[in-house]
Design a protein that fits this description.
Distance between the termini: 20 Å
Order of helices and strands: HHHHHHHHHHHHHHH
Radius of gyration: 18 Å
Number of strands: 0
Number of helices: 15
Shape: globular
Length: about 290
């Protein structure tokens, strides 16, 4: 797979995952966060286990270990995300979580004792300033402060997930990693929901329909194929592409959830979009 193909795949992955905030927030009106996660990821694992049965039967140690590690890390990230999402708008939650675009190059630079590339830092700075504007828009909402804090925690864990994905996918099969990752997330979420006494299944066709959208579009495609795209791209590049995720979520939040658009929010959206456009323009210029 070429770098261009990997980039296109990652953008599609983040668009798909951007829709998850809409479905998750709607489902949490009648289901607990851990129940949504458990049903979503167990079903996703079962579907992919059947579709890629051959890969699972020949799962090597590196692929299994990488999937379990990522599954545990993403479970923590998703817990922060879901509980934060209950307090604030979908677009704002997604944007704050994607502060990972600035945390990743900072963490990578700290680990390698090097400075992040200037274009990465410029795009990250624009995105983070945009996140700041969107945070201001939610600070006066009841519980908004807690929601923002949880979303920031999700951003920190998400950054570590992106970095770890690049590491574990180098010497293992990325599809197998993704499947094992989903299974791990499903089992951990189920165990937590059972321990806390909060497990419950969807109660009607509409809820099952949203669960299936989360399973097929956001999980089977979104989670399982991210390791494949990241195998051919550095973590910093993958982090910048995550701006597609919150932009998708913001559009859907306004169009479907009727979330209000204010001047402060509009500035935040514009800055996030500018980060992606500038990065892509610079990348194209470098290839020319």
């Amino acid at each position: 797979m070429s770098r261009t193909q990997a980039s296109i795949l990652l953008i599609a992955v983040f668009v798909a995952r951007g829709t998850s905030f809409l479905f998750s927030k709607t489902l949490m009106m009648s289901m607990t966060p851990m129940s949504v996660l458990a049903v979503r990821f167990i079903l996703a694992f079962l579907i992919l286990a059947v579709a890629f049965n051959g890969k699972l039967r020949h799962c090597d140690r590196n692929s299994f270990r990488g999937g379990v590690i990522l599954g545990a890390m993403y479970t923590i990230c998703m817990i922060f995300e879901m509980y934060g999402l209950r307090k604030i708008d979908t677009g704002v939650a997604s944007l704050i979580e994607n502060m990972a675009i600035v945390l990743v190059p900072v963490f990578v630079a700290a680990l390698t004792r090097t400075m992040p590339r200037r274009k990465t830092m410029l795009c990250a700075l624009l995105a983070v300033v945009g996140v700041g504007f969107l945070s201001l828009a939610q600070s006066e909402i009841s519980g908004g402060g807690l929601g923002i804090l949880l979303a920031v925690c999700a951003a920190v864990t998400y950054a570590f997930c992106i970095i770890t994905t690049e590491k574990v996918s180098q010497d293992a099969d990325p599809i197998t990693i993704g499947i094992v990752q989903l299974g791990t997330m499903g089992v951990l979420s189920l165990v937590i929901s059972l321990i806390t006494g909060s497990f419950g299944l969807p109660q009607n066709g509409q809820q099952w329909g949203m669960i299936l959208m989360l399973v097929l579009v956001c999980s089977c495609f979104g989670f399982a194929f991210q390791p494949l795209g990241q195998k051919y791209l550095p973590a910093e590049t993958a982090a910048v592409f995550t701006v597609v995720n919150p932009f998708t979520t913001s559009i859907l939040g306004i169009a479907v959830m009727k979330e209000t658009i204010t001047g402060v929010k509009l500035i935040g959206y514009a800055l996030i979009l500018a980060a992606l456009v500038i990065y892509n323009m610079k990348a194209a210029a470098e290839k020319a």
